[in-house]
Amino acid sequence: MYHQYRPGYVEVISGCMFAGKTEELIRRIKVLEFAKKKVLVFKPAIDNRYSETKVVSHAGSEVDSIVIREAKEILNYVDDTIDVVAIDEVQFFDEDIIEICDYYAKKGKRVMAAGLDMDFKGEPFGVMPILITKAEFVTKLTAVCTICGAPATRTQRLVNGKPASFDDPIILVGASESYEARCRHCHQIKNKPSHLGLDYD
Fold first, then answer.
1. Would the annotation count 173 as a binding residue?
2. Which of 14, 164, 169, 177 shows the greatest Cβ crowding within 10 Å of its Cβ?
3. Is 62 tagged catalytic?
4. What residues does 9 pair with on adjacent strands?
5. Domain for residue 173, yes or no?
6. Is 120 marked within a binding site?
């Protein structure tokens, strides 16, 4: 089938931790740079796990990035010479990121955003549900469940080696020391409430 796209659209790369979201974002960035497209890459200041200034995947791939604290800071950097706006860990940004992605897509830029679609509770994470709904293209990646080997779609938070509680804070930046990839069946949340009175344990 033949597809013709006008310049300007949003694509989202989503999934759980260790699914390769950042790796895929970096791959797309490098392909575009080989094609001589001018790309600006942004990351939230909160994500300093592997580098203060670069976007780095768990596998070690990296690209230079602009570190920002609020989504609207992107407006200070993108001008008419930029072809592509790439954003990693987009779930950490405030709701302004939604309008910014819409705006630049409307202006004819390719907007690529990678982030966790669910938090450690298995609930939609921040702005991700809206971004996924508004995007022209969505890629949902899976990892491998560390317990049973099935496709993993959830992020398991561990506290002293045990599953975290539903009441714990949403944001805790970490890597393999705090998180594992799990499938639906092996994902555990202590004290998960149910308005229907269902028992999840």
1. yes
2. 14
3. no
4. 110
5. no
6. no
Measured in Å, how far apart are the chain's first and last C-alpha atoms?
A: 47
The Cα–Cα gap between 72 and 75 comes to 6
The arithmetic mean of pLDDT across residues 173-183, rounded, is 77
pLDDT band at 153 (very low <50, low <70, confident <90, very high): very high
In this structure, is residue 83 part of a structural domain?
Answer: yes
Domain residues for 71? Answer: 9-142
Contact 25, 2 (CB under 8 A): no
Q: How far apart are CA 38 and CA 89, in angstroms?
A: 21
Helix ranges (H only) for the chain are: 21-34, 96-106, 128-134
Residue 132 annotated as lining a ligand binding site: no
Asked, for residue 115, whether it belongs to a domain, the answer is yes
Amino acid at 111: V
- Choosing from 11, 23, 24, 89, the catalytic residue is 89
What's the structural domain count of the chain?
1
Residue 164 in domain: no
Which of 4, 1, 6 shows the shortest CA–CA distance to 110?
6
> Is 101 flagged in the annotation as binding?
no
Q: Does residue 176 carry a pLDDT above 60?
A: no
What is residue 170's predicted lDDT score, i.e. its pLDDT?
74
Q: Report the CATH number at residue 76.
A: 3.40.50.300
Confidence class for position 51, pLDDT limits 50, 70, 90: low
